[in-house]
């Protein structure tokens, strides 16, 4: 006689000694996704606070001279790879964490992304207000020359003469120009005139400056604005 | 017995089944026919195939009993697992349903809900044409229409069963209904 399929199920459970699995065992993937998301949210917030610090580093004259659009373009172009990678990682892990967990499917991609951005922004602002980012920025980890890889991209931003941005140390002052050692050790002849606006206290040798202007020849730069270095990260600066 | 009593009884059955597998029989008995019909409506599988799928489904339900979250009804959770198992099986066989096992009364339910038909009587020829429309329609639309109009699930329950946001479910149902209306006009079941 053919067995009742319902009885067959109960018998199979008993014969194979199947038992209800523990909640943790069934959900470990979910927990892992949440953990990864929390970690990346925190890292995202730290680096968001660096972005705030970077934006605040920009002298108001630079904004006037370059315009906000160009500044954002330069910031995006010089953002360290780690920041970009973290932004992507935060997005992907946040999406997976919410989508792959129990009730994640109830929320739209837009909602999940907005929540992630909101948390990162709020936490990032808190980290900035608590000045944690400045302490981290002064740490050795961020002072290595591999600026595009991980560290503050401020120096990198001032190594872009094609975009009108040049920074470095004044090594010799002449009548109509001064020589400058750029951050990548290239020597530049920087020309200035009565039209050049100086925002530094006094022009002297061995000081670091940031210059906005125009590249007019091979290692020749015409300055229109000379600024104090924006990458001075002394704690008492602000 | 009303919905809340059913739900409370389910929770008691779950607690009992966790302690003793014999008590799980009550859950299997309670859901067997409903899930059997649901799989048959979603797929083209034979009775034996459906029984095999259901066996796997109930064993999975038993293994996952501790994971059942009372935020959703037990029935919804069971449908969710059954739906996933059925879709996996359809994918494994790499073929979409060639025909549906929808009964005439099921079709009339879908038809009336989609087209807001006033008349009680729908002729056999129309029924056959509607069956053809539903069989040929993309799975994603057929699935939500079956859940909404034949299984009579609420939007919230469908969200949990199909695991998609509510907006997407509403849009799938509306588009599914529109497909039926457009095709019904083309086939002459409805007049413009």
Mean pLDDT of chain B: 83
Give the overall silhouette of chain B: elongated
Largest sheet geometry of chain B = none
Q: Please report the distance between the alpha carbons of the first and last residues of chain B.
A: 43 Å
Mean pLDDT of chain A: 77
State which percent range the strand residues of chain B make up. under 5%
Helix/sheet category of chain B: mainly alpha
If interface size is counted as residues with C-beta under 8 Å from the partner's C-beta, which chains form the largest one? A-B, 23 and 30 residues
| Low-pLDDT stretches of chain A | 140-151, 233-238
Describe the structure concisely.
The complex is a heterodimer of chains A (238) and B (192). With 238 residues, chain A is an alpha+beta fold. Chain A has 8 helices and 7 strands; from the N terminus they run H-H-H-H-H-H-H-H-E-E-E-E-E-E-E.
Keywords:
heterodimer; A: 238 residues; alpha+beta; five-stranded mixed barrel; disordered C terminus; B: 192 residues; mainly alpha; 0% strand
How would the blueprint of this fold be written?
The complex is a heterodimer of chains A (238) and B (192).
Chain A: H1 5-15, H2 23-56, H3 60-66, H4 68-78, H5 81-99, H6 109-129, H7 132-138, H8 154-157, E1 159-160, E2 165-173, E3 177-182, E4 187-191, E5 197-198, E6 208-217, E7 220-227
Helix pairs in contact in A: 2-5, 2-6, 2-7, 3-4, 5-6
Chain B: H1 3-19, H2 24-42, H3 47-63, H4 74-92, H5 104-115, H6 124-136, H7 139-150, H8 155-162, H9 166-186
Helix pairs in contact in B: 1-2, 2-3, 2-4, 3-4, 4-8, 5-7, 5-9, 6-9, 7-9
What would you say this structure looks like, in words?
Chain A has helices at 5-15, 23-56, 60-66, 68-78, 81-99, 109-129, 132-138, 154-157, and strands at 159-160, 165-173, 177-182, 187-191, 197-198, 208-217, 220-227. In chain A, α2 packs across α7 (132-138) and α3 crosses α4. Chain A has 8 helices and 7 strands. Chain A has a 5-stranded mixed barrel. With 192 residues, chain B is mainly α. Chain B has 9 helices and no strands. The model of chain B has no long low-confidence stretch (mean pLDDT 83). At the A-B interface, α1 and α2 of A face α2, α3 and α9 of B.
């Amino acid at each position: 006689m053919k067995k009742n399929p319902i009885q067959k199920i109960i018998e199979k459970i008993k014969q194979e000694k199947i038992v209800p699995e523990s909640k943790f065992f069934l959900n470990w993937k979910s927990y892992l996704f949440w953990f990864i998301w929390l970690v990346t949210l925190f890292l995202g917030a730290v680096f968001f606070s660096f972005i705030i610090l970077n934006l605040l580093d920009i002298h108001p004259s630079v904004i006037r001279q370059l315009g906000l659009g160009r500044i954002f373009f330069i910031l995006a172009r010089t953002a360290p790879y780690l920041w970009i990678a973290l932004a992507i990682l935060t997005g992907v892990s946040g999406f997976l964490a919410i989508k792959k967990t129990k009730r994640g499917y109830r929320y739209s991609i837009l909602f999940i992304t907005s929540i992630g951005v909101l948390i990162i922004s709020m936490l990032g602002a808190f980290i900035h207000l608590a000045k944690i980012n400045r302490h981290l920025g002064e740490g050795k980890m961020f002072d290595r020359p591999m600026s595009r890889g991980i560290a503050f991209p401020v120096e990198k931003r001032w190594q872009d003469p094609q975009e009108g941005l040049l920074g470095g140390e004044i090594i010799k002052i002449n009548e109509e120009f001064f020589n400058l050692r750029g951050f990548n050790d290239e020597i530049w002849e920087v020309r200035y005139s009565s039209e050049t606006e100086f925002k530094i206290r006094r022009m002297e040798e061995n000081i670091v400056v940031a210059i906005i202007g125009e590249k007019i020849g091979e290692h020749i730069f015409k300055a229109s604005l000379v600024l104090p270095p924006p990458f001075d990260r002394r704690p008492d600066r602000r | 017995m009303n919905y809340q009593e059913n739900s409370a009884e389910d929770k008691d059955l779950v607690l009992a089944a966790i302690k003793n597998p014999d008590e799980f029989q009550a859950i299997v008995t309670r859901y067997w026919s409903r899930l059997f019909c649901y799989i048959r409506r979603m797929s083209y599988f034979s009775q034996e195939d459906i029984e095999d799928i259901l066996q796997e489904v109930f064993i999975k339900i038993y293994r996952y009993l501790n994971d059942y979250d009372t935020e959703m009804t037990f029935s919804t959770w069971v449908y969710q697992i059954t739906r996933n198992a059925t879709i996996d099986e359809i994918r494994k066989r790499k073929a979409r349903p060639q025909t549906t096992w929808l009964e005439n009364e099921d079709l009339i339910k879908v038809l009336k809900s989609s087209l807001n038909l006033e008349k009680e009587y729908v002729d056999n020829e129309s029924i056959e044409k509607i069956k053809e429309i539903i069989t040929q329609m993309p799975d994603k639309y057929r699935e939500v229409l079956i859940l909404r109009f034949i299984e009579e699930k609420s939007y919230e329950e469908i969200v949990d069963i199909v695991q998609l946001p509510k907006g997407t479910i509403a849009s799938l149902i509306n588009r599914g209904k529109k497909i039926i209306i457009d095709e019904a006009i083309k086939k002459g079941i409805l007049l413009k």
